[in-house]
Design goal:
Strand content: under 5%
Subcellular location: Cell membrane
Structural class: mainly alpha
InterPro entries: SecG (IPR004692)
Main location: membrane
Membrane topology: Multi-pass membrane protein
Order of helices and strands: HHH
Shape: elongated
Number of strands: 0
Radius of gyration: 18 Å
Organism: Weissella hellenica
Length: 79
């Protein structure tokens, strides 16, 4: 059981890396927020839509699964 969970955790970890790398860059937003011209909309919130929203949700779900697998592995290794 421990080996199956460890393998699943490694696979989910690789999927998290892929999901994070597929997310679009927000570098331009960060640069405009730090420069003088973008200070007004620094705290303006925009809801993610389309591909960005899907990738954020996938990343969140994979991170939750990875965390739960980690807790299960700690539990199994202590018993």
């Amino acid at each position: 059981m421990y080996d199956i969970l460890l393998t699943a955790m490694i696979i989910v970890g690789a999927l998290i890396i892929i999901a994070v790398m597929m997310q679009p860059s927000k570098q331009q937003d960060a640069l405009s927020a730090l420069s003088g011209g973008g200070g007004g909309d620094l705290f303006a919130t925009q809801k993610a839509r389309g591909f960005v929203a899907v990738m954020q949700r996938i990343t969140t779900v994979l991170a939750a699964i990875w965390f739960i697998l980690g807790l299960a592995l700690v539990y199994l290794s202590s018993h």
